[in-house]
Amino acid sequence: MKEAGIQLRPINTLLTDAGGESARYWIPAYQRGYRWTQLQVTQLLDDIRDFTRRPNPQPEEFYCLQPLVIKAGADGLFEVVDGQQRLTTLFLILRHFNERLAEKYRQKLYSLAYETRHSLDGFLDNPDENTAAENVDFFHLYHAIQSIEQWFADHESEVEDIKSALLNKTKVIWFELEDQDDPVAAFTRLNVGKIPLTNDELIRAMFLRRAAAEDEGHGLALRIAHEWDQLEKALQHDAFWYFLSNDTAPGHNRIGLIFELVAADGMNDLLKQDAYGAFHVFNERLEARSAEQEWLGVKQTFMALEEWYEDRELFNVEGFLIHQGVAINDLLKSAQARRNGEFAHALRRLAFASAVGGNLDELDGQALQQTIRERCENISYGSESEAIRTILLLFNLATLLEDPRSNLRFQFDSFKNEDWDIEHVRSVEVRRPVRHNERKDWLEHCRGYIASRGDDEGLVQKIDEFLDLAQGEDADAIFDTLYDRVLTYFQEDDEGGEDGLANLTLLDQSTNRSYKNAVFAVKRQRLLELDKSGIFVPLCTRNVFLKCYSAQVDNVMFWSRQDAKAYGEVIVETLTNFFLQDREAGA
Length: 587
Known about the structure:
The chain is α/β, with parallel strands linked by helices. Helix content is 58%, strand content 8%. The protein folds into four domains: 5-197, no CATH class; 198-310, no CATH class; 339-350 and 359-432 and 494-587, no CATH class; 435-487. It is elongated and about 95 Å long. The mean pLDDT is 86.
């Protein structure tokens, strides 16, 4: 009886069938012929050689090839659904080993048969260049053979090590379709769309096979399948996913993240470099533990993440740390080692180190405020743009958590997908438009606002005249006069804003590109339109353009140095209170 499902098989187990005869692999008509290039062949050999030369090798380590998807037939043939290129290349390498030996010492190899193509046997007996020219399959096979022979000629002293590593320490993920599975449909999915089998698909098949073997009534397998779908459904919610992940282009299935987290402790350096590292870990664990036990560990990890997601403070602070690149597994270990209050304090220590720098526990209240103030006042736009973005993001989160009556949560999904970055609240002098098309863009933004106010039709007319003006010698002088008049309308001067943190906020990149040179009133109008339409705008960005941080609002259309100073003070005060609140809670 065949053992369907998924396994890790050393290459030497592919050579013969259960009866000790040469295994027979059949390439159906729906597949193209052999197409590996010389580079792909030598890369495979180089990878196996690198594996044999790794420092401090461990006995249990192995080199793994990507999946071989097959469908077993009643006549003993294995129909190759996916992986025929690798299987054929392995055959050519094994054939080369045999040709180095006298016939009586040669190893029994598997055979390859094609449904609609020429037989390989005759060609491989005498793979000459003239015969290779007869068809495209022979052409690629011939050059692959030449590449293999040349590669081993260059590594003559390592042949036996490579051979041993290939046969005994190289494994393939053997994925055998069930009797009812359609091999053509499987091939279409894996090849036409170029969609490889993913870690989670391989792990799912392995879990269900083991569960079915442990429980003849298949109740366990059905429960795991149902719970699996529930976990995947939860992770498909972007609010949950982007709280946990910075991957803005996730694969179709997101549950793979959970398996990577659970498997991480069992991965050595070699497996961390393997696209199927998590599968290897679970394959080993399921040899020693039941599917039910291992599945319980998966669910417990998911439930810990779900608990964080449901807790507003943990959601905001951990979401910030994950965005900064802190590993989720480090957070899980920290949570397991501490009580809730201690864990929350540990998170804020990490947040402080990331945004401000230094050890939070070494600072009293006064020193804490002074440290934050110095960091905010001395941070440099340009060379420290990423650090500024970090502070502004934490400022938004601290603001959300400032009032315990609030139930607002930061929208990490919108923030990560829409690429919010830092930009000047009020444009600086060096950003004055110079090129003719840039000047027109700048004036068009201003014109829309001025026209909507209806209080200076003469200025609108002058802008329209310039917009119709072709580039020429007079354009510079006309624009300079018009530019000064527009600034006067908006009560701005030509000195521009500062480069400090108090003149910076988070803006989405599309607004940045279109409005970065615009006056404050135009940027304000654009951001309020987004907010009014229900489009995500970070709370503190909204507050800036509503001038919520200003003690006295003389003109909502103008961003003064006094406005900037008040904004800077609020950033320092909010961040200081954020870290002090943690101490008060733990007191």
